[in-house]
Amino acid sequence: MAVEKMKLLNLVIEKSEAHDVLRDIALQEKIHLVNAMTEINESNFKLKVDEDLIEEVKGLCLIDSFSEKRDFKSVQEKLYKLMDYMNLERLLDKNLLHENYRFEDMEDDINHIYDELTHIRERIDVLQEEKNRLEEMNILDGIYENVDFSRLFNLHFFNVKFGILSKENMERLTKNYDNIYAAILHIGRKGTNEIYIVVSLKELELETDRILRSVYFEEIKLLDGYLDTPEKMIAKIKDRMNFIDTELDGLHMEATNYRDKHGQSLMICYAQLMLELKIEQMKKQLAVTNNYVYITGWVSQTDSDFLEEYFEKYGSSIVYGTREVDDVTRKLRPPTKLRNKWLFKPFEELVHMYGTPSYDELDPTSFVGLAYMFLFGAMFGDLGQGLILAIAGFFLKKKVASYGGILMRIGVFSMIFGFFYDSLFGYEHVISKLIPLNIFIRPIENINTMLIAGVITGLVFLMISYAYSVVNKLKKNDLKEGLFGRNGIAGIVLFLAILLFAGASFLEWTFIPTGPLKVIIFLMVVLMVVREPLANTIKKIKPLHHEPPSEYYVESGFELLETFLGMLSNSLSFVRVGAFALNHVGLFMAFHTIAAITGTLAGEVSMFILGNLLVIGLEGLIVLIQGLRLVYYEMFSKYYTGDGLAFEPVEIENLGGVN
Asked: Any idea which architecture 2-66+286-335 has in CATH?
């Protein structure tokens, strides 16, 4: 329920240990790396100096970027080919990386397996290509003429082509017979394909080919060793294909044995290669001297002690130091890492969709989660349909944890409100018959109550939003907006005073005196108009206005008008909460009416199913969007900037994709 406190981590390690340390950083997934060269230049890379650190500190004057690079292209291509040959999915299993390894050993394993398997795959490819050619020649069994292809394809003055042509294209060709210097003979039919032999003079080969291409003539190449009469050629083809199938079965079996024998080894190699590629990426963030490597990055305060203890295994080969955020120059922004309980954890996705909270902002996730669940449940209250959404979220969670978790939770809140609305799959008075208590509020019977409750709910959420805004502004020492801004303390007081004044004037709340409220409203308006010079006076900043006073006060006047309009529109916008609850019931009344008109059981059942599907699918989507609109536009706009830097620790990525 908060933004985790960060520390800037500085590491100095002996160059010989650099690879192992980078490997541990990638596996731990707890450090958000930043460019060490930049931080050294900004004087953020600092360590406590004692006699043990003299050499490390001396090296800082000879610092440079990490330039050593390794080429993984060859071994990566071989590994990918092997995995394709064995039908292995390129999925990263980080559990295979806990054991130490040498890249050279991994490379040797890949080369050894590749050399063994390559000759098998090459033989499979050759046989498969020959088999494809023979399958094309199978069209010979559709020939009804006794043609001797061995004599036909050995003519001295003529070229012969054998192939198929569709009836439509043959008709096109027939219309141009006068321009064709070739004999075209129809010799058979195979399915929808018409089989032809085209005989032309060798001197006219180019012209003939051009014409045949224009009518999409599909030439079939006949292998020399099979040229004979069609009957004999078919017999030869069948014998050869049987032989090829037998040999392919044996080769595929041998390849399968390789998968059983080396599949696990290749998956380990794949995981190790992904780690090596990540280490190469990490090197771009490092700085080096002749003997030492310098690493800097952000770690959470909770992980700092763990990492310090973890790196103790390197002994004197590593120097570990951390700095508090307040000790770091302002140019280096700490990243934001959110920490929320399981109930609100999925709603971090909604927060990040709008933007990442700044490090010095309050984490709005718990408020967003509570507000969104409440608003959705109030607008889409139904015990049965909420149950469907919760079940759908449970299954979706296995694939997309955040969205599935959100759907589960809003489904549960829909069930809770549906219970009190006495609504089960659109039918009212069902729950109340089973539980005869006077606790139900049916929306269609309490229209005014629902609309007023929606507005009151909105006012509560808006007040919480104002409170978030005040805290965020004051944490940044922004007195201008935190104390006197429209979303600051002055804005809260003005909003409350206007609400009380409206209640006293229009609802005749006689217990509230309007005189003091008018004074408070006037004072808050004045404070909001002069907020900048007033804040600068308190902070002793000159000049008091950042622009000419006349322009400033004209602009403040328009902002004040916008403030009053915003307060009105923001408050009334929550009427939609009650309106959608009424709309939910109204839709089902329409479906019940249609079902009654049908007058049959089948009609009622079909309307029940269709009505629920449409309401869950269409109205559910609309309410999802309207809930987001209220959270983003009406509330976030009050207090949330979302211009922070997300905490992105080094993680090994599945760069290879999936077959």
From this structure: 2-Layer Sandwich (3.30)
